[in-house]
């Protein structure tokens, strides 16, 4: 039996811009988890169970020796097909398996914006590699998970997969997704696609300052990230160029503040990124900062902290950067009075990932 715990994630800066190749963001892994247990199959093809989504284990079907699951489990199916192909390309035999997913990334059956779909993919990749006694690394797990999402036409940055794979606080620069698709189509080999450095990709662990603390508030309003990214009015070329440059500046400012343990610089980066996202939403005629998220951010600023939305906005979570307990208590009380639920979260760093500390991945051509 193999059991894997994968953390949730939160964006600190760089949202929306990071969906463009080469654009950076700062993302953290948080200490709420999705747990996957892989065990010996009790039927010939194995089964899949997800707490809250299946009443009983679903039998995994097989067509042309590829695992199949019914709708709405397309992402699970795609991930299983991809990881099995990877295992077979390594010359290994598939060990039939039962899968059991349990999640702490929801409250009262609702997603809370911590990247549950990304965590599921990372858990399946990591869990099945370990189940087959194959080596893993954060970069390998990230790349396999990313390929599963790309196969389903994802428009996202894939940054949630990086945060769940590497853990801690990371500076993430998104890869050129079309170049990855072209690479895979041209080689028809997962091994070749994974071992080749991906254009623009960079993942670097940052040492988050001990004297800075993040508060996270949940608005109880779910957001649909893919719809927010793909449907609103597009920017003009000039607007897009300015948005990307300004977002990069906000991320660089936050990274410098984190590296120098400068709370003031970090707070300024939060404030500047919030203003940029407000302008971006106005230009695209979309809603990022809902009334509840605006209240969340305003509460933070009222008591001297910096607040902003996290991720796609339109619901889910917001964050506040604080430096003392009094400030934190005042903001938390303000949130609760407004109907916002504070989430007791901290940055999570997997103990066996210490070797990633402050080391850029991929742009140094490291192999998975």
TrEMBL record:
Residues 257-339 form the GHMP kinase C-terminal domain. Keywords: ATP-binding, Kinase, Nucleotide-binding, Transferase. GO terms for biological process: isopentenyl diphosphate biosynthetic process, mevalonate pathway. GO terms for molecular function: ATP binding; phosphomevalonate kinase activity. Pathway: Isoprenoid biosynthesis; isopentenyl diphosphate biosynthesis via mevalonate pathway; isopentenyl diphosphate from (R)-mevalonate: step 2/3. Its EC number is 2.7.4.2. Residues 83-168 form the GHMP kinase N-terminal domain. This is phosphomevalonate kinase. It comes from Dolosigranulum pigrum ATCC 51524.
């Amino acid at each position: 039996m193999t059991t894997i715990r994968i953390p949730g994630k939160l964006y600190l800066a760089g949202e929306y811009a990071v969906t463009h190749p080469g654009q950076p963001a700062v993302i953290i892994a948080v200490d709420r988890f999705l747990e996957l247990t892989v065990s010996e199959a009790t039927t010939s093809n194995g089964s899949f169970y997800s707490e809250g989504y299946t009443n009983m284990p679903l039998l995994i079907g097989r067509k042309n020796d590829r695992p199949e699951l019914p709708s709405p489990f397309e992402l699970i199916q795609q991930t299983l097909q991809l990881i099995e192909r990877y295992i077979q390309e390594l010359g290994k035999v598939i060990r039939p398996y039962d899968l059991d997913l349990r999640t702490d990334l929801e409250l009262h059956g609702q997603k809370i914006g911590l990247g549950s779909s990304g965590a599921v993919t990372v858990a399946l990749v990591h869990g099945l590699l370990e189940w087959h006694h194959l080596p893993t690394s954060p970069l390998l797990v990230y790349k396999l998970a990313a390929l599963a999402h790309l196969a389903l036409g994802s428009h996202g940055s894939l940054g949630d997969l990086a945060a769940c794979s590497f853990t801690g606080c990371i500076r993430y620069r998104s890869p050129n997704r079309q170049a990855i698709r072209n690479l895979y189509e041209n080689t028809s080999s997962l091994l070749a696609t994974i071992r080749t450095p991906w254009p623009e990709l960079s993942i670097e662990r940052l040492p988050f300052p001990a004297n800075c603390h993040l508060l996270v508030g949940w608005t109880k309003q779910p957001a649909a990230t893919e719809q927010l990214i793909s449907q609103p009015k597009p920017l003009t070329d000039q607007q897009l160029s300015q948005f990307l440059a300004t977002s990069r500046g906000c991320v660089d400012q936050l990274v410098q503040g984190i590296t120098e343990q400068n709370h003031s610089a970090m707070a300024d980066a939060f404030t500047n990124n919030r203003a940029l996202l407000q302008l971006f939403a106005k230009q695209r005629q979309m809603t990022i900062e809902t009334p509840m998220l605006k209240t969340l951010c305003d509460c933070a600023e009222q008591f001297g902290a910096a607040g902003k939305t996290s991720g796609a906005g339109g619901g889910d979570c917001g964050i506040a950067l604080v430096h003392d307990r009094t400030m934190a208590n005042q903001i938390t009380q303000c949130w609760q009075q407004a109907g916002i639920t504070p989430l007791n979260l901290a940055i999570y760093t997997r103990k066996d990932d210490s070797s990633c500390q402050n080391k850029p991945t991929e742009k140094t051509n490291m192999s998975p």
